[in-house]
Write a structure and sequence with these properties.
Shape: elongated
Bound molecules: iron/sulfur cluster
Number of helices: 8
Distance between the termini: 129 Å
Number of strands: 7
Largest sheet: 3 strands, parallel
Oligomer: single chain
Strand content: 5-15%
Order of helices and strands: EEHHHEHEHEHEEHH
Helix content: 25-40%
Strand order of the largest sheet: 3-4-5
Length: 317
Amino acid sequence: MADAPGNGQNGNSSQSYELRLMTEEEFMAEDAAPPGILVTTFSKLLDAVNPAYNWGRRYSMWPMQFGLACCAIEFISQAASRYDFDRFGWGLTRASPRQADVMIVSGTVTKKMLPQIVRLYNQMAEPKYVISMGCCANGGGPFKEGYNVVSGIDQFLPVDVYIPGCPPTPQAFLHGLMKLQEKVDAERVQDVAWYRRGQTEEIPVPILGPDLIDPRQVPELQVALKAAEAERKAADEAAKLAAAAALAPALAALAAGQAQAGQAQGPAPTTGAETLPSGKPKPISGKVAKAMRERGLTPGVDPIPADLLPPGAGQGD
Ligand code: SF4
């Protein structure tokens, strides 16, 4: 509380003033201010700044100087005298992303070009905007689902305005330009991201390999890869079990047949070379086994033919 000086008529009249800091809620809850008193909030003060701030920005948009395909020719034509987008303050196309305010994606976005586009976008300073010009940039256009074409730049960049057409007419382009101006006009200094604390996150640059990989999708891709690998292993195991089950009767029949044949032939001729002094069966050499297989015999089951025995074998040594 403070006493204000008197009005000078009687020399002793005084009026008290009160200085208070209020939150916006408290301010809104208060009754109207007394007449003659101007009250405001910081937010309202900034609202007075916003029109001038946005007016300056919407009439000084500098597009980035790049194009991707036929739509770029239409974009270039805007700079010529007939349409002359310099009337809107947009004519100063910049060769450096550091000095550009708006990226006009004009044309087919190929997978090979996309990493460069995203890198350029990341290099632009805030505030920055993206216009997607033409069907190709909007969703792939006539090349949608093509092996080398991205189905829309908005899968990677935040698009502010889409301009339809293949290619868009100059009038459509100017309409899109004005739509972006309207969007800029509606922004408030209090809300915009570039005056907030913390850095704006960069968009991860896609990796071009056999196909395009969005680094943001790597965790999901890894999970899907693991699931596919587990599925493949399970399918392999099941196939092996099924094959073993199908072969089991045939193997049993073969073994039974061999046993019958053995009984019919009597005991297998002993060679003396088939057992070791310890009494264990002597391993059949690879050469003998191969020769037996060539004759349709099973090594270890069928007796070794005499001509394959080493010299001196079968004489009890
Ligand atoms: S939208 Fe049409 S004119 Fe534009 S780049 Fe694609 S094919 Fe060319």
